[in-house]
Amino acid sequence: MAYNEHLANRVREAFIDQPKVDEVEMFKGLCFMVNEKMCICIRDNGLLCRIGQDQAAIELETGDCRQMIHGTRVMKDFVWVDGEDLITAQKFNHWITLAVAFNKIAKASKKGGKAKD
To answer: Collapsing DSSP states into helix, strand and coil, what is residue 85?
Structure first.
């Protein structure tokens, strides 16, 4: 499992006011489950953000992220944000805000977030 501990601490701080946050090893990194739903995952120096298909389409147009592909499957609700695009607090907070907003309407996984890659 490879992830940036400093980035993980930034996510922990951002989620401090969330009522239920669990950390799960998944996707070869560290995933933050908010209210038992995948919200943000850290791998290396980047973030996998679950922001929903509609918002992902908007964000992909900006070029600040790329579509997440797991194996051969396109994960339409997820985008990958490279570490260089997370350096400023403004950019970091943008992605956290989008992920938390989608989390409120996202459906929980049938697997319950227990899967490990």
So the answer is: helix
The separation between CA 24 and the C-alpha centre of its own chain, rounded to angstroms, equals 12
Residue carrying the six token digits 């339409």: 76
Nearest CA to 50 out of 85, 93, 96 is that of: 96
Contacts of 27 (CB under 8 A, 6+ apart): 41, 43, 48, 70, 117
Query: Can you tell me the distance from the alpha carbon of 117 to that of 18, in angstroms, rounded to the nearest whole number?
Result: 26
Q: Domains in the chain, please, with CATH?
A: 5-103 (3.90.1150.30)
Q: Please, what is the angle between helix 89-103 and helix 5-14, to 10°?
A: 60
pLDDT in tens, 44-99: 899 999 999 999 999 999 888 988 877 788 889 999 999 887 889 999 999 999 99
Question: From edge to edge, which strands make up the β-sheet containing 66-70?
Answer: 21-26, 29-34, 37-43, 46-50, 73-81, 66-70
